[in-house]
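Methods — Computational structure assignment.
A single polypeptide chain was analysed. Its primary sequence is given first, followed by the predicted tertiary structure written as structure tokens.
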Amino acid sequence: MAQLKFALFGHPVAHSLSPQIHQQFAKHVGLDLDYQLIDVPSEHFEAVVTAFFANGGRGANVTLPHKQQALALAKGQTRIAAQSGAANTLFVDGDGRLWADNTDAPGFIEDIQQLGWQPQHSVLIWGNGGAARGIVAGLLAAGAQAVTICGRSQAKSEALARCFAAQAVKTIGWDEKNAVTCEWLINATSVSPDFARWLPNTPPSVYYDLNYASRAMSAVQAAKARGIVAHDGLGMLVRQAAFAFERWTQQPLTSEVVEHVVEWLRQLARP
């Protein structure tokens, strides 16, 4: 069987665990794959991605800061990608057309449901970029009743909320972040939050950081020190990768395989 070519495009990408994750999936279903990390700045993104697929690439993941560029580059968009206004997965259909998908959304929802989230639980999201777009789309698809977006740019938060035109979604200004109450607090920024200044006056029940391993460690520890149940985004990382892998290969992954990779990766990522 010919080796399948996949890649992650972003800037930076050196920290990514995606190659290890997809190699684990491939091992479980008996596929041979090559998964590259391709660090590319925004001005070269389109040319480099186009060349990758022209040279036999089967599929690609996309991370910061290219998720909206990826959506614009594709000739077709899945419904969830179009709704979220961002793409983290690219694939080629049988006619050779490039499609954009967003597996962040189902990966995130599957993970937080495993951790006990229910649609009636109110959610506050720190951040209003591509990662936030995907999880808002996922939350609404899962029936969330109260989602609040809070970012440094109020205009950007409001523009994101307008993408969904949903009664369940509202925005607040960055200077209001301490006054809001929520049951789940999601960090969808790429930085470690300053808990002393950012945390709502009434602490949430659960803190979830889309970053993972060492990039989320200080925030997760700070939340736990305040009596908040806290999780990093490692489970989401594996689950969104599983949805992408299935999209590219048409090979289903059992829940047992996905859970095995989550636990394997958590052991691997421990300092």
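Note: The first strand starts at residue 4 and ends at 10.
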